Amino acid sequence: MPHFLDLLTVTRAELDAVLARSAEWAAGSAEPRGPRVRIATVFAGPAFRTRLAFDTAIDLIGGHRVDLPIALGEREPICDTAAILSGGVDAVVVRHGDDAEVRELAAHSGVPVVSAMTALGHPCEVVSEAFTLRQRRGSLDGLALTFVGADTNLFRSWCELSTRYAITVTQLAPAGFAAPDAYLDGIRARGGAVATSTELEAACSGAEVLYCDGWPAAALEPGGIRDAFQALQVTSAVLELTAAGGVLMHCMPVARGNEVSADAFADPRSITLAAKANLAPSHAAILEHALGRL
Ligand SMILES: NC(=O)NCCC[C@H](N)C(=O)O
């Protein structure tokens, strides 16, 4: 079953096909393939952008979206939810914090399961951001990306992508917020190129992409940790350190004045909003991949 739960269990060839198909959807030149499908969405939280993107994506590929306001694992065993979904829809898109529970759903599912974010990964978002960068520079290979933030789901999906393309991912975070060495070594063992840094200038100098995530909850309180994150804020001056053509991307929602200054976010080098416009086309391609249509 071609589930889409992370970027380690898809091949580079499959990702290439997803990116190529994303370009067709983005250009408005694609037509749905195959018969009409029914796709369930199970989203924890508001998931504003993700709902919008998947609703559009499902519409693009010729599907009907069945939005299910259920909380995975809350009222029945996940295997029972999986059994009902398998009989009722052609694929399931799920946003749920507990990564293991999403994998449990997939393990029991007779239809493809696509992760629309867990605490450990955000593969669809990163594919969409990567698609945006590929459109700009022609290829992903050779990309140097500095991830500004804690060890988050988005950071991990970028690390995973670095095992599929020649991307170097450097995490810039205060001491104590770097991803564990065991995780980073696992990525390296799979061919990924990952590093960590606590030094703003060193980590951002020459980067092609500064990718920001929001602060962890602990950094929102006044005091030491907040100050440590504040010191790594991406400002216009930090953007000046990047390589020629360097860009800023933010996963959103953005907290201006925290991880990024208002002027840096508004800078023409911030391609965040252009990237978000690529969510629907790339998600359409991911769904087609999961449905075996690429
Ligand atoms: N565009 C998005 O889906 N953003 C998600 C925010 C990611 C953040 N690390 C979170 O887990 O809340």
TrEMBL record:
Residues 3-135 form the Aspartate/ornithine carbamoyltransferase carbamoyl-P binding domain. GO terms for molecular function: amino acid binding; ornithine carbamoyltransferase activity. Keywords: Transferase. Gene3D superfamilies: Aspartate/ornithine carbamoyltransferase (3.40.50.1370). InterPro entries: Asp/Orn_carbamoyltranf_P-bd (IPR006132), Asp/Orn_carbamoylTrfase (IPR006130), Asp/Orn_carbamoylTrfase_sf (IPR036901), Asp_carbamoyltransf_Asp/Orn-bd (IPR006131), Orn/put_carbamltrans (IPR002292). The keyword Cytoplasm does not apply. GO terms for biological process: citrulline biosynthetic process; L-arginine biosynthetic process via ornithine. Residues 142-288 form the Aspartate/ornithine carbamoyltransferase Asp/Orn-binding domain. It comes from the Bacteria. Belongs to the aspartate/ornithine carbamoyltransferase superfamily. This is Ornithine carbamoyltransferase. It comes from Microterricola viridarii.
